[in-house]
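Um, can you check?
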Amino acid sequence: MLKIYKKTILIDSSGAHPRLESPPQSKLSNLLTIPAMIAGAVLGTVVFSAFFALLLIPLTIIGIRGWWLLRKLKNAQVDGQSLEAEYTVVSDPAKTSKSD
């Protein structure tokens, strides 16, 4: 059985050594200890589950949105085709005379 000990240190103003006092344990506190621990464990589990669900829902929405955008981006890319354009090469006469 679990026992809870409470120790109090009293320091006298006269400079005497501290002494430890232990209050008497009541049977009621011994009977309520185990149900209180079980209730705390259950409540902690419920709170953790609620927090996890509140965190998981937005992360799931963000993840699905990111996956959807990546999928659209990959489908938008066209494989095997090249970009055709016209261009003109312009040379700088000052740079070409220095290299000669």
